[in-house]
Amino acid sequence: MVRADDPLYVALHEDGRSGDGNHMSPTQCDYEIKYADGASTIGALIVDQFSLPRIATRPNLPFGCGYNQGVGENFQQTSPVNGILGLDRGKVSFVSQLKMLGIITKHVVGHCLSSGGGGLLFVGDGDGNLVLLHANYYSPGSATLYFDRHSLGMNPMDVVFDSGSTYTYFTAQPYQATVYAIKGGLSSTSLEQVSDPSLPLCWKGQKAFESVFDVKKEFKSLQLNFGNNAVMEIPPENYLIVTEYGNVCLGILHGCRLNFNIIGDITMQDQMVIYDNEREQLGWIRGSCGRSPTKAEYLYGRRRFRAPLRRRRATRGGGGADRRRDITFHMTLQIARKRHPPRHPALRRSSEPQPGGKHLRRRAQLHLHHTMTARLALLASLLLLLQLVPPSSAVVLELHGNVYPIGHFFITMNIGDPAKSYFLDIDTGSTLTWLQCDAPCTNCNIVPHVLYKPTPKKLVTCADSLCTDLYTDLGKPKRCGSQKQCDYVIQYVDSSSMGVLVIDRFSLSASNGTNPTTIAFGCGYDQGKKNRNVPIPVDGILGLSRGKVTLLSQLKSQGVITKHVLGHCISSKGGGFLFFGDAQVPTSGVTWTPMNREHKYYSPGHGTLHFDSNSKAISAAPMAVIFDSGATYTYFAAQPYQATLSVVKSTLNSECKFLTEVTEKDRALTVCWKGKDKIVTIDEVKKCFRSLSLEFADGDKKATLEIPPEHYLIISQEGHVCLGILDGSKEHLSLAGTNLIGGITMLDQMVIYDSERSLLGWVNYQCDRIPRSESAITSRL
């Protein structure tokens, strides 16, 4: 047992892998590690003997003994490994400990993963295409992404190499750009997009594929170009798999919880990848990784340390990256105790107090020889012999999208069993969560993923209380048709959706470790004729308003959250986060105002509109206001809109005559201005505009929502500055005098909807920093 006053404890916390640095027991080194998929582990640091092949001694090495396991979003009932072999750059990592004990002379580690299964792991010198390392993880820094030798036109993307990730994970922008490029670059019309339980994006051919090489010619290569002209080629076989159903699937996934991009096993196949901590370099070179050594040869002096890697099982086809989601690369280690060990002290569990305040105790069951299978993880600094463990904080979901040009803010939700990913537009103005679905689908949009396909047993009957609650939320009398299913029609201000109510599993990691078994949502099979074949970046709507069948109400009824509180934070840089429950609500600095208790929408009541801090309101009368995250732009009724447009134009005419109104129609918005040259950022013209403000009265108190120019302006692709406040009376919207505060006006603010206290609040916030309580980012995504 490692005590809390041991130098190893200090080293563990210096590596940043053990929570907040406060040990949970005075007599042992406890740790808690949280992972990007919502999982975590609680354990104690211990030391034991490791049997390394071809080495006479059995060195004592520290590793984690995890005593509290649970599940995350990617929970598997069975795991092919006993734990994690931590290979990162921290002081307590496996490689650091071997070097400190003199077993190896240089902190260099490498692996070669074969597309045919297996491969090798080595510690020692290596060479290849080298780039400098950055940060504590194995990161070569930023790279430019190319498709078929053509840049995808994005900013450089931060990259981390992680052998613990089976697949490669890109953040929102590069992921979407990659998907669009691959779809657009398909050279064959014989491929048809298909739903496959293995991965989100798959295609089928005229007959089942046996390996990636059967279809490789239809796809183009990707390239990552790093700053010193080091290029990583990513041919199709390094980003595609062939599933057991004979479909070819994209092995690059959406890293919805990440703020960097992970190069996983699939992209590192058939290459020797070298992590040289001595020279701060990372390298790769193409090679035959299938010729694994029959014996493990550890580096002693100048000899190479090589341990054979094994796969859990092979999949059909034999060639290419044909691995399923549950396949891992791992090695076998022997951990042994002395033949006559002293009585081992009890492990004190830090998470389950007994009556009387004492902690539960667990005896460590350590036998003479333990053969452990450990997965290789470059983002973990410990050898963790454990499984995935549950989360311990509120539900926080990453947002993607922007005001312009995407025009949507959405999350990735995993739905179904097996789970499939869908993009859902967050909408505080909608009651029902719904997906476009194949029932079959008529008059539907072109969406990013394969349409959700319900089965008859998923249908909610018209007699079900859920159907009654839906019609109560819609304010309509329930009518049961001949099919006895719960059909519905939802009218939006600018469209409609017809569908049927279904239930299915939502994979949603929650604060108390629970995961709701079923959620009721809409299967939308008709979106109206004007929406037919219109491409949109989302698969459906995440209904977040107040009602009985909203997602939040269902989560609360199932005990997933304890309070009907939600919030969002939309970044002007793109992205942001959404949260459920009150754990993320700041304790101070929030401007609060009462919400109308009778309103199903989130309305702070009536507000007066001011311009440039003028005490006199420009609105003729107080304006009825609704906060609606589903609206990209802000919509004013006729009088306040005309008043706003008038004062904005007046200011420009007197102070910024170099800006002239665009007479030709801009593709982005109705009212735009142009300068002598193309305008690139709002900062270039911000001085020409003044702030607006909405003032809400609460008795003697006043709550003010400040609306600076960057919260009502956009820069269009034509280089014009455009007004992001629209005339609700002329935009084919039946708002009946109501004013919508849309996403553009809520940028860079945490907006909180507290239905428990009937309060609506906002506070300036850095929304591109997603709140995380994780002490480490996992490779188990």
Automatic annotation (TrEMBL):
Pfam families named among the record's database cross-references: TAXi_C, TAXi_N
Any GO MF annotation of the entry: aspartic-type endopeptidase activity
Database matches in PROSITE patterns: ASP_PROTEASE (PS00141), PEPTIDASE_A1 (PS51767)
Disordered as annotated region, ranges: 340-361
InterPro entries for this protein: Aspartic_peptidase_A1 (IPR001461), Aspartic_peptidase_AS (IPR001969), PEPTIDASE_A1 (IPR033121), Peptidase_aspartic_dom_sf (IPR021109), TAXi_C (IPR032799), TAXi_N (IPR032861)
Active site: D427, D628
Keyword Repeat: yes
Name by which UniProt lists this protein: Aspartic proteinase Asp1
Species per Swiss-Prot/TrEMBL record: Oryza rufipogon
